[in-house]
Amino acid sequence: MKDKDKLLHYLIDKALNSVSIPELINLVSDVAETSVCFKDIDGSIYVKSSVQEFIEHVGAYPLQELRRHYKVIKISDNDYLLGHLILPNEEIVENENITSAIVLALRVYCIRNKAERERKYMAESDILQRFLTRRLRFEKVQSEFKERPFPLEDNSMIIVLGLRMSTPGIASKEHETITLLDDKFSRFFKCYVSWRERRKIIIAITPQFPMDEKAATDFIIYTIENMKNNISDSNLFSDICAGFGTIKNDINNLPDSYDEADRAFRVACLSNDIWWRKWRELGALRLLMFFSDNKESDLFIESALSKLLPDIEEQDSQILLSTLRALDNNSWNLKQTSLFLNLHYNTMKYRFQKIQEILEVDFSCPETRFNVSLALRLLSLKGK
């Protein structure tokens, strides 16, 4: 068994056919006649050893500390980390033939396992996406999972995470950000399924405890805040937005939670002050979100703002529309708005008068201000 080719073929064959990582670790330890530990990327530890000190150390010490006493080898697939192999600094493991065979066997097993997980993940994500977007009835969904348990339970909810806007030239960085978010949260909930769209990820979760909506949302908010503050490449993380749907007692109603989360995400992307929004706390915006998807909202916006809505080439119209939005956000106070826009007060007065002339309205009328304010919010909710 010490012949390199025979050993390698034997271990690779077992890696391709082993039913579990503990089985493979036990086999590797028996073949190499030494203690063996494998630390998975999700924090799981698999160890086979007769030495109590080794078992205690690999279970308690971080990798940096373990490197001072043991041989630590990174197992990876290209740039994707699969885990770490930890071996004692004994003479047997200094034999490169045996060590390389162990590393390759673990790498083969992890790649196989990763591929199987991804196939299952893709199948579940596709079915869930069709269910949440109401293209597949729940009865049909259940039949799709007849040979395995449905990946979610009652008392589940939907979260939409993504970037406020796409940044040209850094699509790979955007993908990296979404992947990191997915990896981060997939470990912390009782049930977890997700699918990705352009610049965002839709996450369906069942929290650890029934109706634990606040704990789940607070955990995600807190974790992303830490990422924004602590990760060195924070440019993309500062652009992350989140929308939270509500927990649904009956999984049949989960598409409603998806609609809520998606609308809350759209509101979050329009906010300058709050990067996350909960559907439960949107207030009057909840009503506006329903109305913004109706054709009547287009007619209302046109009646209130059509003479000011800018064409792409009309910079003056864009400036006046931005000024009108600033006025609305500053309670129609000219002095406060001029300070907000860093404009001279006389310039602010000129723009104010110009906007009234173009729209043919009088902003001293409360009803007029209300209609314009409502139209501006509907326009924003449409992403314009």
- Uncertain spans, ≥5 residues at pLDDT below 50? none
Total strand segments: 9
Sheet having the most strands: 5 strands, mixed
Overall pLDDT score = 80
Shape: elongated
SSE string? HHEEHHEEHHEHEEHEHEHHHHHH
Distance, first to last CA: 69 Å
Q: Give, in spatial order, the strands making up the sheet with the most strands.
A: 6-7-5-8-9
Query: What fraction of residues sit in β-strands?
Result: 5-15%
CA-atom Rg in angstroms: 28 Å
Brief account:
The chain is of the alpha+beta class.
Description of the molecule:
By secondary structure, the protein is of the alpha+beta class. The chain contains 15 helices and nine strands. Helix content is 54%, strand content 14%. The strands form two sheets. Strands 6-7-5-8-9 form a five-stranded mixed β-sheet. The protein has a four-stranded antiparallel β-sheet with strand order 2-1-4-3, with helices on both faces. A hairpin with a 2-residue loop joins strand 6 (191-197) and strand 7 (200-206). Helix 1 (4-17) runs parallel beside helix 5 (96-132), helix 10 packs across helix 15 (366-381) and helix 13 packs across helix 14. The longest helix has 37 residues, at 96-132. The N and C termini lie far apart (69 Å). The mean pLDDT is 80.
